[in-house]
Write a structure and sequence with these properties.
The protein is of the alpha/beta class and about 325 residues long. It has one domain: Alpha-Beta Barrel (TIM Barrel), CATH 3.20.20.140. The strands form 3 sheets. It has an 8-stranded parallel β-sheet. A two-stranded antiparallel sheet has the order 1-2. Helix 4 links the parallel strand 5 and strand 6. Helix 1 runs antiparallel to helix 3 and helix 4 packs parallel to helix 5. The longest helix has 21 residues.
Length: about 325
């Protein structure tokens, strides 16, 4: 039994064990890059204080058996192009060492030096050939080049050739409009919108048809894309086969999947295409536990569906 306090209310619960497909890590190399480029509030958000020991402790308290860790926004968008490939390589190698030290607890989703296509192809080869990784984590856009852009097709082709697990994560959009919501945290609104923009572009460019072996996991239940599915399927969108394309993707349940995202995703893709995510280190331990408890106790899921979402689907994707 675990006791947490949310909004001043004490909650007693028995945690259901889960595999976390959406959380983040900050290797020493990445912290050094943030300091070097004086990045203190990327996306109008604080930089978390992350340590491996604290993350492992939170995992245990939140009932997380295993976690897939990735570097998150702003990714490497602030790094000088001349340093980009080596910066990404250093972080991936540090992540690989973490996974090697904790093989039963942690898997790493490697970064790529996008939008540099040639360097990304070389990094895929290095990661697959020499590092302990479970897949790759890509931004919705890399310096304004969105997933689905034909310029990235060589990278998609290589990832398809190896049947890669690829998770997407939002970042600041290619253009932030001046004088609109300028002091709000970018994740509050723009992350969900940029997720929708990237997924729609991938559908429009037929990424899921042309690269069917990539196992894509979309973040935060698909962001605004999922809540706009009927709109996107109407009129000019009817030919895009939005729902058919969604059935070729996986979706994590980090963020706020209730009350809107989860019922829609269950109806369109089913529990077999959903995985759990907690998004550490951004939520507090208490908030992370409360997030899991809401899914544990909601009446939308059967016990078998929870088992699939919490454990079985992730085990297949991560090959654990």
């Amino acid at each position: 039994m675990t006791s947490v306090t949310e909004a001043g209310v004490k909650i007693i619960m028995k945690l259901l064990e889960k595999i976390d497909m959406h959380s983040h890590y900050f290797p020493d190399k990445y912290y050094s890059l943030l300091r070097k480029y004086d990045i203190t509030h990327p996306d109008n958000v604080f930089v978390p204080e992350w340590t491996l020991e604290d993350h492992l402790s939170k995992m245990e308290k939140a009932g997380i058996l295993y976690t897939a860790l990735s570097i998150t926004s702003p990714f490497f968008s602030f790094v000088d192009p001349s340093e980009l490939a080596s910066a990404v390589r250093g972080c991936n190698e540090e992540g690989s060492r973490i996974a090697e030290d904790h093989p039963d607890k942690i898997g790493i989703l490697a970064s790529l030096p996008l939008p540099d296509v040639q360097a990304s192809l070389e990094e895929i080869d290095h990661c697959v050939g020499h590092l302990n990784i479970k897949g790759f984590a890509l931004p919705t856009n890399a310096s304004g080049i969105y997933m689905g852009n034909p310029a990235l097709d060589p990278v998609m082709k290589k990832l398809d050739d190896i049947g890669a697990l690829v998770t997407l994560h939002p970042t600041s959009p290619a253009q932030v409009i001046e004088g609109v919501n300028e002091t709000l945290p970018i994740p509050l609104f723009e992350f969900y919108v940029d997720t929708a923009r990237a997924i729609l572009n991938m559908v429009y460019r037929k990424v899921f048809d042309r690269f069917p072996n990539i196992r894509f996991v979309m973040p935060h239940g698909g962001g605004c894309f999922t809540t706009m599915v009927e709109r996107l399927s109407s009129g000019a969108g009817a030919a895009l086969d939005i729902k058919g394309n969604m059935r070729k993707m996986y979706f994590d349940l980090a963020g706020s999947p209730l009350p809107l995202h989860l019922p829609t995703l269950l109806e369109i893709v089913g529990a077999e295409r959903l995985v759990y995510g907690i998004d550490f280190p951004y939520p507090s331990l208490e908030a992370g536990i409360a997030h899991g408890n809401r899914l544990d106790t909601c009446d939308l899921l059967t016990d078998d569906q929870r088992k699939a979402i919490y454990i079985e689907n992730a085990k297949k994707l991560l090959s654990i």
